[in-house]
Known about the structure:
Layout: E1 5-9, H1 18-27, E2 31-32, E3 41-45, E4 48-51, E5 60-65, E6 68-75, E7 82-85, E8 88-92, E9 122-125, E10 129-141, E11 144-152, E12 158-162, E13 169-171, H2 188-216, H3 227-234, H4 242-255, E14 262-267, H5 273-286, E15 290-294, H6 298-311, E16 319-322, H7 328-339, E17 345-348, E18 362-368, H8 375-385, E19 389-394, H9 400-407, E20 412-415, E21 426-431, H10 434-446, E22 450-454, H11 458-471, E23 477-480, H12 486-497, E24 503-506, E25 519-524, H13 532-539, E26 550-555, H14 563-578, H15 587-597, H16 600-609, H17 611-625, H18 652-663, H19 668-682, H20 687-702
Parallel strand pairs: 2-3, 14-19, 14-20, 15-17, 15-18, 16-17, 18-19, 21-26, 22-24, 22-25, 23-24, 25-26
Antiparallel strand pairs: 1-8, 3-4, 4-5, 5-6, 6-7, 9-10, 9-13, 10-11, 11-12
Amino acid sequence: MTKNLIEINLTKNLFPSFNVLVEQLVGLNYSRVEMVFEPGDFSIKGNIIDIFCHSNTYPLRIEYDLDDIDRLSLFYVNNQRSFKDLTDVSINAFENDTVFYNDKKRVRMDESLLSQFFIDDYIVHEYYGIGLFKGLSYQKFSSVEGEYVCLEYKDKSLVYVPLDQLNLIHKYNLQDSPPSLNSLSEKKWLQTKKKAERDTLEIAEELYDRYKRRQSAVGFTFSEDSLEQLEMEALFEHELTPDQKRALAEIKNDMETSTPMDRLLCGDVGFGKTEIMLRAAFKAVDNYKQVVILVPTTLLADQHFKLFSKRFEQTPYIIKMLSRFVSKSDQKAIIKGISEQKCDIVIGTHRLLSKDIVFKDLGLLIIDEEQRFGVKHKEKIKEFKEAVDVLNVTATPIPRTTYMSLTGSKDISIIETPPPFRKPIQTFVAKYSDELIKKAINQEVERKGQVFFIHNRVETIDKKVIELKKMFPSLRILMVHAQMTEEKIKAIMISFLNYDCDILVSTTIIENGIDIKNANTIIIDSSERFGLSQIHQLRGRVGRSDIQSYAYLLFSDKKILSEKAKQRLQAIKEYVNLGSGYHLALKDLEIRGAGNILGQQQFGHLLKVGFSYYCKLLEDSISNKKGQYNARFWMPLRTDKIRISENYIPNQRERIAIYTRFMTCKSFDDLSHLKDELQDRYGRLPFDEQKVFDYIYDEIEKHGL
């Protein structure tokens, strides 16, 4: 066996003992973590060692029986489950400059693997209000002893919550400034909660009434697809994904009924929403109706205008763009054309919401990222919505349940799968280094591509540009940030789009913006400062074509990171490694999703109780309005009867996740699957943990589940 190689062969009885393997892994530069996500990781859970070799597609699980290996298998990162037994394996040394993660395929994470709570996170308990999550704590109260969730409130007051009340605790994810902690001795929380409950009842009334009005309204009934529609769609160079086909069918079905459409089209960045918009717009103009496409930025308006013009160039339909960058004389002519129906499709910014815009026969309103429009603009949009078909489009990944809890509506189409020609973004999480930056940028430039470099501090962005110019003296480098004028920003982005620049150093201003298919590497400096949704949106700036794209999420030296920054970095790693489905209803979604639906007053209530709990209150109010009982399944299991030893599952976040799953087991099959999973991931059940499963089995039987 060489110094840089560990060989395990079960048939030849060739393997190191448990302790020797651990020592060897450390010697080969592997890092011990709580859960294996990335190449270079290894974890220890009882008698199981998980290892991710950079030379392997999947990580390795080794289960020991004393010092003999009892099981050798591969497992999936996204659900941590074994799927293939092995008889031999070689473990190579891990090189420090090896990238942490290579996203070979898109996978959906099993979100039940980890609790979303980190130590010192702000939480909302339904009875006590906003506090700090302090983790699990072993306590003995009367005859009930076991693990409790410890919460800290004002004046360092502590509350120990039994495990069967985990469903009363919600994550508080809003705003950059921290909320005030509630006091256990004051009634302020009860008052805040009552106001929020009254508010959600009012919203439920409004949503229900709006839904009833819309159902009773009679709109235009579009005809079935014409030959021209089918011919136009056939010209698209790619076949639609099943999700795209489903979304398009739902939209067309809405348009072909007399009830005005009010649908949300939700799809990840680059998943093909624009093609669906194009086809819906064609259906409208094919029925002699006008279409307005409302977008939040002039750059996006320009991009949509070019794309629509190209796709409609063989048709008789007239497409115009209206924004403040269009000359006054041209604006006047376009507005006149709109009023006389000499313009079929108009694409523009909030300029389209001005009083002088009057449509002769508007049939379809498409709103791209409505949450980015102001309150006054939204009021104008509401006026539009009463009589015409409306298609809202968003790239923010909104879980169906979240959307329904905010709206009480089922009119949502979700595109969850990428087009088959699109290659997954290879994403690397690594410590900041000049060598890695040189390697990443040189690799992109050598293939004639362009690079986004995200540095989200205006006060130091000039310095970063100078650093990069010294590092790459022959490359063309431009800078853009929000303190520039809009004209300057547009000029720089057009230069980048026209390939007059190799590296664009930018703040998060490019988070939502135009597609630049030649830019396929993005480097995010100090990634630990970003929220998951920001990372998600920024990463989506690349990978817009069939060219392999790369995202480098660079973090500062771990030794100088604050505890909060370390937690953010851990969340980023979980997000990157486990797929974009992981808790992306976090901070940005809350602000955007809520802002899309709620008014300013309601948003204020949301801030006071947190997004998650507000959604629950609103969902309950809407269910009550509809005369439905909105019961969520939750077994009231005794805290002292379901304790899992930290020797068996050391990581608190994993234990909390398992406790939650105990409480949501609806059948013997659910419990059996969970038992198999635990034994796969953590090893054979110890005696006390076996008693836990026996107890839950009896409870399921008692409740007749």
